[in-house]
Amino acid sequence: MPSRAALSSTSTRTLRRPEQTRSHHISSRSLLQSALNLSSKPSRPAPASFLLPFHSRGLHQAATQQSINSPPHDFHNTQAEIPPTSFLDGAGAGNISPTSTSGSSTTVLTPTSNLEGSSSSTHSLTGPLVLSHSLQTLLPRLTLQKPHYIVSHIHKFPYLLTEGDILRLPFHMHGVSPGDILRFNRASILGSRDYTLKAGAKNTESYDAKRTGEPQYIDERLFECRMRVMGLETNPMMDKEKKKRRNRHKKVVHSKHKYTVLRVMQIKVKSIDDLKTDKGIGMLVLEGPEGEQQQQQQQ
Amino acid sequence: MANYFRITLLRSAIGLAQKTHGVLRALGLRKRLRTVYHPVSPQVAGMVFAVKELVDVQEVDQQLTKDEMKDLRRPDPGFYVERRAGEDWVHGRVEG
């Protein structure tokens, strides 16, 4: 049995040297170098991705004119091209007791008060949207306190975003082209400077529920988050050399990773009036202070 | 009435007898944490009993394929396309 103690294969990942790229231009310098064998060994460690020219870093202001490319009337409640899938969780929207800290209105610097809103266990848009009593009292304050931030989840990974941010996803998002508008609908936290809205715990835990390890999501009807696809970024071409010891044969694998870049166009936290008048919300349930429920049927 | 056994290998058979390795191979469990569906029968029940310390068993009504099981673990994408670029532009027509 061959011992596994000593690993006889090595693989090194290097950045492609400029002279390795295929170029038909023969300069005198390259001729001189090849003649005198001055080129160094390709064993440099791979650096992190470079700052590409159009990826400028000074664009994180939330209130720039450029962040709002199209007029506000384009961002009303449009019908989704691909409606979001509904979850099969059996529990209804959570009835949550309010947390102990509630923002006192007298002091200027209030501690961050937690609004535990309706959890997103009923992901389908036909389930009732339950607003707990604490949510009804604190949501107006959250809505008025701009700017807002959102922790939205793409394939379960969280991204903290605010208006005007540029988000470079760590993967190449297929099926979208530059200029498309995406709508992020899975969020775990919505917040402003003094207030935070997060989903409450579910009432029942189902053994047969989808076990994806996802966090508690806020009901998607409470907010609107729109992103525009800016384009693709690519890393420099990397060479991975695979070679075994005491064997002259080596194999080189090239990789050039791509990343989708998005820009946050709008983060809107809906107020209670918006929720009452918006169509497509379904049933809106407002809880009283003792937990009694008053239902309002929507269209 | 449950139709299938859902069998998951939780503990490895390294260091155990060849017979035990053989039973796991017969069940189709080559690696830890792999899940396999077999119809309920005394033969399968006997195989499970032979490796009962290594394995987790449930009775279920339907058997799932590898892709279906992976779909259950797949998280929500978290986004959808609301509007495609160039939707307003109609090919061949010049907008005045």
The end-to-end distance of chain B, rounded to whole angstroms, is 68 Å
Radius of gyration of chain A: 27 Å
Number of discrete helical segments of chain A: 3
Compute the CA-based radius of gyration of chain B: 24 Å
User: What is the overall silhouette of chain B?
Assistant: elongated
The percentage of residues in β strands of chain B lies in 15-25%
The succession of helices and strands of chain B, N to C, reads EHEHEHE
Q: Roughly how many Å apart are the termini of chain A?
A: 72 Å
State the total count of DSSP E strands of chain B.
4
SS field, number of helical segments of chain B: 3
Protein name (chain B): 39S ribosomal protein L33, mitochondrial
Keywords (chain B): Ribonucleoprotein, Ribosomal protein
Organism (chain B): Vermiconidia calcicola
Protein name (chain A): Aconitate hydratase
Describe the structure.
Chain A: Residues 1-123 are annotated as: Disordered. The complex is a heterodimer of chains A (299) and B (96). Chain A is mainly beta. Helix content of chain A is 9%, strand content 30%. Chain A has 3 helices and 15 strands. A 5-stranded mixed sheet of chain A has the order 2-9-8-4-5, covered by helices on one side. In chain A, strands 6-13-10-7 form a 4-stranded antiparallel sheet, with no helix packed on it. In chain A, a hairpin with a 3-residue loop joins strand 8 (187-191) and strand 9. The longest helix of chain A is centred in the middle third of the chain and has 12 residues, at 133-144. Chain A is elongated and about 85 Å long. Residues 41-111 of chain A have low confidence and may be disordered. Chain B has 96 residues and is α+β, with helices and mostly antiparallel strands. Chain B is built from 3 helices and 4 strands, in the order E-H-E-H-E-H-E. Chain B has a 3-stranded antiparallel sheet with strand order 2-1-3, with no helix packed on it. The longest helix of chain B has 10 residues, at 18-27. Chain A binds chain B through residues 78, 80-85, 87, 123, 152-156, 175-186, 210-214, 226-227, 229, and chain B through 72-86. Strand 7 (181-184) of chain A pairs antiparallel with strand 4 (79-83) of chain B, so a sheet runs across the interface.
